[in-house]
Structure formats: C-alpha cells, structure tokens
C-alpha cells in the first residue's frame, strides 16, 4: 500500500511565491510579464539623441496606408508584411501585365487610348506586358448575335480590332488601334481601317479575311468570356484596367485610369 507524505503548508506557500516572482512564469496578471506576446521595435523620439526600444503590439504601428507598406523596410516591418514585400521584389524582373478592357466607340476609352496608352506603353514597353480586350459592356444575345452600347458600328469596330490583336498581338496592334480610335468617330469602320492601313500593311489581307469571316466572331466571343470572367470584381464600366489579372474595385479602377503613368513610375522604381 502506497501512502502520501504530508507536506507542511509553509513549504507550499514558499514554492508558490517563488514561482510567482519568476519572470518565466507567464501569468497574465503578473505585474512584470505581459499578458500577450510582444516584440521590441525601434521607435525614434525626436527629443532623444538615441533610439529606444518599446514593447508594443504589432498592430499599434500599422497606421500607414496600404499603398505605402512596401515603400521602405521600416514600413514593411511595422505592418508585418516583410515577406510579402520581399516576394514582390524577388519578381521585379517580371513585367507588369496591364489588361485594358474597352469598347471601340466609348468616348472615355478613345481618350485613354489616344492620349495615354500609346505614349505610356512606348515609355515602359520593356517592363510591361500589354493585353487589349475590345468588348466592354457588349452583350451576346440569345440568337448568338452581338449587341453593343454604341450600335452595330461599334460591334464591327470591336471585331476588327480583335482580328488585328489576334494577328499582331496587343503590343504590335497598339499603333493601329491608337490611329483607329483617333478617327473612328467621324469615319466608317472601313474608312478608318484604310486610313490606318500603314500599321498593318503586311497583314492587311489576313486581318480583312478574319474581320469578314467566322474568325472575327470567334475572337469576340473570347473577348466576351475574358471580360465576364474577371475576378474578384465584375466589369461595370469602361475603360477598365486589370493589373496582373487582378480586377480592382470600380473606385480603384477610376484612380488607376487617371494615374496609371504615375503608378507605373512608382511601381518600377519601388521594385527595381
């Protein structure tokens, strides 16, 4: 038969008190030990000649707008995104993919393509991957035909541009599309195609065959699928810019359209 020894009460009290005053005893109410894990961060006080370490939870420091989190190692540390910012810099040699979803006769699209996109691409073409998707808010009807915001002329223009993009790729098609968008408002599709034919001279017949045949219709269906399958936000207006296949919210898209040259300059400098 086993028996237990009776331990005097004063010994138990001394053991408890010793443990309580031990810094390793991580009791949530101990006056010398924090109730949650914290890390020491460098905080600079202007009135002091040196840096001091203070114990504060990480979230206390993250009062920086997300657009600036990777602006410096200090900002990334404060907001706990060092690994994410490092990962972005590791991929800095990869081009940024810009996808423009647009309609050929949308005035805002015409202005963006004519006044911004051409020059911007020429400036940054070594660091950009361009994708052009001429569809916008067009619709596929039950009988398989297309309905476009600005009528049949826009459907024809969208189809023609799909053929040019398919033949020359987006970067090669851009000079023709810039030329086309500058004059299509006062021209027919055939007139605009002829006026800008210098940019597609060697592939004119191939593009014309695509435009007049079934291939152009198939390409428009592909453009519709691309437009309607964007994530996480649907395309509600044009022009719409996807950044590396990410669809921003409508408000952020409006800012991106207005500030894209400045944003590209920042992104390229930030990750170079």
From TrEMBL:
Belongs to the GILT family. GO terms for molecular function: oxidoreductase activity, acting on a sulfur group of donors, disulfide as acceptor. Keywords: Glycoprotein, Signal. It comes from Trichostrongylus colubriformis (Black scour worm). Residues 1-18 form the signal peptide. This is Gamma interferon inducible lysosomal thiol reductase. PANTHER family: GAMMA-INTERFERON INDUCIBLE LYSOSOMAL THIOL REDUCTASE GILT, PRION-LIKE-(Q_N-RICH)-DOMAIN-BEARING PROTEIN. InterPro entries: Interferon-induced_GILT. It holds the Pfam family GILT.
């Amino acid at each position: 038969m086993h028996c237990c020894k009776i331990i005097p009460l004063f010994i138990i009290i001394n053991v408890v008190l010793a443990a309580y005053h031990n810094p390793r005893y991580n009791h949530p109410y101990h006056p010398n030990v924090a109730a949650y894990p914290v890390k020491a961060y460098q905080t600079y006080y202007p009135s002091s000649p040196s840096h001091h370490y203070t114990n504060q939870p990480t979230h206390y420091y993250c009062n920086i707008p997300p657009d600036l989190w990777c602006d410096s190692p200090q900002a990334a540390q404060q907001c706990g995104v060092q690994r994410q910012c490092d990962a972005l810099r590791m991929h800095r040699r990869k081009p940024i993919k810009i996808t423009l979803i647009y309609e050929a006769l949308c005035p805002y699209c015409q202005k963006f393509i004519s006044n911004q996109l051409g020059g911007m691409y020429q400036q940054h073409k070594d660091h950009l991957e361009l994708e052009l998707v001429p569809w916008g808010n067009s619709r596929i009807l039950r009988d398989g035909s297309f309905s476009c915001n600005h009528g049949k002329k826009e459907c024809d223009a969208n189809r023609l541009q799909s053929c040019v993009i398919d033949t020359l790729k987006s970067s090669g098609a851009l000079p023709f599309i810039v030329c086309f968008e500058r004059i299509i408002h006062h021209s027919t599709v055939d007139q605009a195609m002829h006026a800008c034919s210098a940019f597609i001279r060697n592939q004119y017949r191939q593009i014309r065959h695509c435009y007049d045949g079934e291939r152009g219709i198939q390409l428009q269906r592909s453009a519709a699928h691309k437009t309607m399958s964007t994530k996480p936000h649907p395309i509600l207006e044009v022009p719409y810019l996807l950044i590396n296949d990410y669809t921003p919210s409508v408000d952020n898209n409006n800012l991106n359209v207005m500030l894209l040259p400045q944003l590209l300059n920042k992104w390229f400098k930030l990750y170079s």
